[in-house]
Amino acid sequence: MPLLKENERYTYSDYRTWGDNERCELIDGMPYTMSPAPSWIHQRISGRLHFQFAGFLKGKSCEIFAAPFDVRLNAETGDDTVVQPDLVIICDRAKLSGTGFTGAPDMVIEIISPSSESHDRVLKFNRYLRAGVREYWIVSPDSKTVSIHILKNGEYVSSAFGETDIAPVGVLAGCEISLHDVFAE
Q: What residue ranges define each of the domains in the chain, with the CATH number in brackets?
């Protein structure tokens, strides 16, 4: 990544020139460096969630994608926000292009780590809300919980589920995720 200037705002065009040596996201024009590789626990949880969602979505119009996968939340306006959620559910395939998706995905899943918790719970939460992401899951490996946020009337309605619960998926009628299977040792 080239040397970035303090207080300078960047766009998706700038982001595309930074190369693959360092993973980063761009939120409202500001770059945020991501960890080079998530922990094995993070990867296991991501894989288990992906497996359950992919099984449910087989033969349906929606599809699940895993990071790295660029989501350009405001490409039609400022095009200064590119995030790489751990998992995304996309139902509008017309907005798929190149390395990702343009617009607000139907669902975003972030698996938090101690270094990303504030980023995911505050900054990305507010950015996903503003973009109109219909469902946002925050998965905590440490507490073995999932916070589910469903968009209703411009606000997120939140609920929490623990490691023995079955979590309903609001944007996918009939889909339920076994958290026991996600968090099992």
A: 39-183 (3.90.1570.10)
